[in-house]
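Deviation from plan, reported transparently: NAP complex.
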Amino acid sequence: MAHTEEYDVIIVGAGFAGVHQLLNIRKLGLAAKILEAGNGLGGTWYWNRYPGARVDSEMPIYQFSDPELWRDWTFTEYHPGWQEIQAYFRYVDKKLDVSRDVLYNSRVASAHWNDSVDRWTVTTKDGRIFRAQFLSLCTGIGSKYHVPDFKGLDTFKGQVHHTARWPEKYDIKGKKVGVIGNGASGVQVIQEIAPTVSHLTVFQRTPNMALPMKQRKNNGAEEEKVKRDLYPLLYARRSQTFAGFFYDFKQTPVADTTPEERALVLEDLWEKGGLCFCLGCYAELLSNREFNDEVYAFWRKKVRERITDPTLQEKLAPMKPPHPFGIRRPSLEQRYFEVFSQANVTLVDINEAAIEEIIPKGLKTSDGIEHELDVVVLATGFDMVTGGITSIDIRGQDGISIKEKWVDGVQSYLGLASATYPNMFWIYGPQSPSSFSNGPSSIELISDWIIVGLIVGE
Ligand code: NAP
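Because the crystal trials were delayed, the predicted structure below was used instead.
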């Protein structure tokens, strides 16, 4: 029988959440181990290496708030790419030796609570067994990637790559590429590869109301002064705002403003770039449909100015909003809307010509057209938010798996724990601010809250 390794806490996942939990738990003098499926730190940033992958939160907000870590670290761009975020995690590891408490290449298969000993038994896919008083699920919102059940996918003679499992060394230059999906991952991969592939066909189901990223280089000129004088304030501020950014919604009632004032406000937010167009807007954006339509009309006008072809204008920024503005986390783009005017790029609206099947030489749509492809890129997202947890066979006091328990919807306490699963917590998961917040902001708050719980519960 396999040897059982004993810990106070087992943490699943070594992204921002898992690393923060570990560092917190170390401070309590408890023994913890992170079990991580990948071969490095970073979580989503370990796996998401597709061309153009970069974060939508601007620096310095997207990092740990511990001065010991930010004092000696600088990102070179305001929206760092995946390589630099991986470098950041290597830096954190070097500084705090996170890896001594991580077991890499270890995907967790099950976690069962045992009432008679008040412990969790956790097993990995390769058969290792762990026992711990506490189980901390730091599996993130996008750890289980989604491959739609396309007919004929296995018959394709070319290569298929999901954005969440991009091969480490892969040159897509000069190839005929089809991208399915245009969420944040799709937008980034599309704008990045469009200049160098021989042909790009984008299969779009819903237009993306992407906002301008307004990427900037960090020349570091004032950084020392800003770090010394402002960082502590900025990180304190981060935990007070709606979405964990430095900016927040305006509470002024829209009815108290004039259309001219609102137009100026929107123009200013647009010029700033990034998510503040949404999260720095009037709070009524999310509750007042009329105002929401006004913001959409502003966005549509801005986007249409960048597209000359009227058909493309209507496909990418339609007159009628496909959904209210801001109810999906907006993606940030750099040259996305210009890409579609390139001669080597075709946009296929799959509401008009559905994806019928993948054929050996490409993809066939319901209008009978066979799109010849060397590569199919699946930017089709994830089993979002719950997938990382429900893909583990987690059984609590009543022996019922959490997947079964949540079949009709998630039930949680404060988006971090669930009845009948004692001593089990999750961070940045179901019913927490997760997708609508800056990851490290809400992660640190929840992680600290759990630690307070551990101290009080002792
Ligand atoms: P996503 O937002 O779920 O987008 C998936 C895309 O695939 C959508 O365009 C979707 O269309 C399409 N799709 C799914 N199934 C399809 C099917 N059967 N046929 C055709 N199209 C299909 O996934 P994601 O872009 O990977 O993003 C996931 C999360 O990660 C988001 O919360 C995002 O904000 C975050 N993310 C952030 C960054 C960043 O920080 N910059 C980068 C990447 C991802 P519909 O829209 O019609 O459903």
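The chain has three domains: 4-144+383-455, 153-208+331-378, 241-306. We consider this an acceptable substitute for the interim report.
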